[in-house]
Design brief:
This protein is mainly beta and 157 residues long. It has one domain (16-153): Jelly Rolls. Helix content is 11%, strand content 43%. It has two helices and twelve strands; from the N terminus they run ββββββββββαβαβ. The longest helix has 11 residues, at 136-146.
Length: 157
């Protein structure tokens, strides 16, 4: 068993990355820090942000809404997830979401870890100024290269 180092972060202290599919990730616990057990990040999103229909073949995904709301499409069924709500999406289940409020923030937990390479390849360090425009070709390439996410189709909304 690998001994892990203690990790403590203050609010906003995690690595910040502009995800090329839209939004800013603040990484709270990386796979290296958790011994591969999980990846945890906060996702700050703007109205209208959508994800393609996709699935995670080897990881369960949990969303906890900190503020705002999203419309979830999970295995063909649509539901609203609002502040204080949680959604647990088992590995392999097709899903997508769309932000339905002016802004939204959610925690995203992927267990076990394994998706970090995808997110790193499909993002860039957040800096001063405006975020880059969404680059879905880059997101698709990162999905194909890493196998952490399988894109199944366009947003279902």
């Amino acid at each position: 068993m690998t001994a892990l180092a203690t990790t403590v972060r203050a609010l906003g202290a995690g690595e910040r990355r502009w995800f090329c599919g839209g939004g800013v990730h603040t990484w709270l616990a990386t796979e290296d820090e958790t011994g591969g057990a999980y990846l945890l990040f906060e996702d700050a999103l703007d109205a209208g942000k959508v994800t393609p229909l996709h699935r995670h073949p080897a990881a369960d995904e949990t969303f906890y809404m900190l503020e705002g709301a999203v419309r979830l499409h999970i295995a063909g069924e649509e539901r609203t997830l609002a502040e204080g709500g949680i959604a647990i999406i088992p590995r392999g289940v097709p899903h997508a979401f769309m932000v339905t409020t002016p802004t939204a923030r959610m925690l995203c937990l992927q267990t076990p870890g394994g998706g970090e390479a995808f997110y790193r390849q499909a993002s860039e360090p957040a800096g001063v100024g405006d975020p880059p425009m969404p680059d879905f070709a880059r997101v698709r390439a990162a999905a194909a290269d890493t196998g952490a996410i399988e894109i199944l189709g366009p947003p279902p909304f």
